[in-house]
Amino acid sequence: MFKHVEAYPGDPILTLNENFGADPRPHKINLSIGVYLNEAGKMPAMGAVLRAESALAADLGTRPYLPMEGNAAYRAAVRELTFGGAVPADRVAIAQTLGGSGALKVGADFIARYFPKAGVWVSDPTWDNHYSIFAGAGLPVQKYRYYDAATGHVDFPGMLAALEALPAGDVVLLHACCHNPTGADLDELQWRELAALVKRRGLLPFFDMAYQGFGKGVDEDAFAIRHFAAEGIPLFAATSFSKNFSLYGERCGSLSVVCADAREAGNVLGQLKATIRRNYSSPPTHGARIIARVLDDAALRAEWRAELEGMRTRVADMRAGLYEALRERRPDGDFGYLVKQTGMFSFTGLTPAEVERLREESAVYLVGSGRLCLAALTRRTIAPTADAMARVLG
Ligand code: PMP
């Protein structure tokens, strides 16, 4: 019956992570998967999260089905965290989703139904799963010019020219902050220019914000979404709390759709609910209760923000540390990209062959594209990583 089912080659990043687990070399260093680790090389349990969770444990109650659109307190708090009052709440249809991936999937299914002729445009390069999720929903996915390897930064004129040429109504996927995999982001002036283009050309922006708080700060990282919304541009925004609450396995995220008025937002929310019902019926209770509690309590929220700020500065320190270490070892090299880029990742420009040598010869794991996760580096692993990189850089 199942003879025609071909073997799954595996997800490139998750497979790499499994291979790392099986690698017997004790000095191995994993800079591949996008998770934040602390100085001890461990995934942190955040203080505010633990405190909210113990308070919940004392008063767990029952675990009913949530409504299709999720926990109401969570949705209100997440709307505030995402938009910060840039748009009236009744114009935003928001649903709790299964992480950022779930938000992208619900959004993609919604687009396939209500904008069946739309093309979806993603940055070149982007997170691989963007292709899988949007193509999996039956939408054609194409790339727009984004990263310039020569400068280690965004080719902004190239990006504008590419988007200028798109048909009105096409969907443009934008990383709100901390671009994955390159770490190259637009600045505020560029976002403003892009918003004007999107508005003039009638494009439909779909923001993906999986790293809020890891770029410049919680509010700064939401600048693009807030600015586009304040400009009256209809948009989608997917958020994820996997990284900034260190709650990967709880699968907490949200999908917001900014609409023209409350009536439209009501209809859109209704259809998001229908999409969710068809997919998994309703989201889980636990993670959303934790996050709602943290965000709704002034003291816990302040503690969370301070802890997240500490995580953000730790990653920035790792960028500076690796930069200095590489400059010492290879004064001939240009490693400025490390300190220019923001967020958890940098694009090293290493070729797939060089990435393979790093893994084979030094047990340092990067993604094949040359993406390095700075958020997994520690003071202890900077020197061996820099040694290994200096060796493969011909
Ligand atoms: N978008 C981007 C750009 C990501 O990097 C990730 C996580 N790696 C996601 C979405 C998905 O987030 P989640 O793990 O919460 O599903």
UniProtKB/TrEMBL annotation:
InterPro entries: Aminotransferase_I/II_large, Asp_trans, PyrdxlP-dep_Trfase, PyrdxlP-dep_Trfase_major, PyrdxlP-dep_Trfase_small. Keywords: Aminotransferase, Pyridoxal phosphate, Transferase. Transmembrane segments: none annotated. GO terms for biological process: L-phenylalanine biosynthetic process from chorismate via phenylpyruvate. The keyword Transferase applies. It holds the Pfam family Aminotran_1_2. Its cofactor is pyridoxal 5'-phosphate. Residues 27-387 form the Aminotransferase class I/classII large domain. GO terms for cellular component: cytosol. The keyword ATP-binding does not apply. GO terms for molecular function: identical protein binding; L-tyrosine-2-oxoglutarate transaminase activity; pyridoxal phosphate binding. NCBIfam families: PRK09257.1. Homodimer. Belongs to the class-I pyridoxal-phosphate-dependent aminotransferase family. This is Aromatic-amino-acid transaminase. It comes from Pseudoduganella namucuonensis.
